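Structure (tokenized):
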């Protein structure tokens, strides 16, 4: 009888150890790639101003260097706003991928961008007026600022709409499969937790002894913990 009991406990403990190993990987995935807060935190570590300034420097001709500085200052001013919008897009995307929303749709107003751009443009022109503004009146300077602002912002819409159509065609084609895979993962994740609880309950019912049950579960969890820590350390 004791042999059968020990064999049953050993089998359940082995299954619990394997389940813990799988759950460790699932938990890591759930807390990183499948966690929008983790993704947002990693994005926030990026130096948005430096990245934008590098991109702007490649796109703006040398003769419009003053405009590159204006855009760089605008990006620096809007960095908190940019990160906030990136967070909203990330959370909206995860809500869609995880099935919490039926569609992916987010509208971002671009008025803060235009306002900041105009302020930095005015400041740049007033600090270093171009030759054509020599001797110009305040009204003429203001008109020049408005005309320059209109020239550079005429292609900027009032809002930016982010939805499924904003993604590359290849990504759009794989979205249903991605949503389905994440759905299966969520089911398996919670199912694995329930399975481990059943294994622990089975060990408790078979042992019917607090001391031996605690010792057996402690050895199983400690063994897994040591191996997991060694793997992370390596």
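Design, position by position:
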């Amino acid at each position: 009888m004791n042999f059968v009991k020990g064999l049953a406990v050993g089998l359940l403990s082995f299954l619990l150890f394997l389940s813990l190993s799988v759950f460790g990987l699932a938990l890591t995935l759930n807390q990183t790639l499948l966690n929008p807060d983790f993704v947002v935190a990693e994005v926030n570590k990026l130096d948005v101003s430096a990245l934008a300034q590098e991109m702007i420097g490649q796109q703006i001709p040398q003769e419009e260097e003053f405009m590159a500085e204006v855009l760089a200052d605008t990006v620096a001013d809007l960095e908190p706003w940019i990160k906030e919008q990136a967070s909203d897009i990330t959370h909206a995307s995860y809500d869609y991928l995880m099935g919490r929303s039926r569609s992916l749709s987010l509208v971002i107003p671009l008025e803060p961008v235009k306002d900041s751009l105009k302020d930095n443009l005015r400041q740049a022109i007033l600090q270093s007026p171009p030759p054509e503004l020599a001797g110009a009146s305040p009204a003429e300077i203001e008109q020049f600022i408005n005309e320059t602002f209109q020239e550079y912002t005429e292609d900027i819409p009032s809002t930016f709409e982010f939805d499924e159509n904003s993604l590359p065609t290849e990504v759009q084609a794989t979205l249903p499969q991605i949503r389905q895979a994440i759905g299966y993962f969520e089911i398996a994740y919670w199912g694995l937790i329930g399975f481990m609880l059943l294994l622990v309950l089975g060990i408790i019912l078979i042992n019917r002894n607090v001391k031996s049950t605690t010792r057996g579960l402690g050895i199983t969890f400690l063994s897994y913990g040591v191996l997991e820590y060694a793997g992370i350390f390596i």
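Reviewer-requested clarification: The chain is about 75% helix and 5% strand. The radius of gyration is 29 Å.
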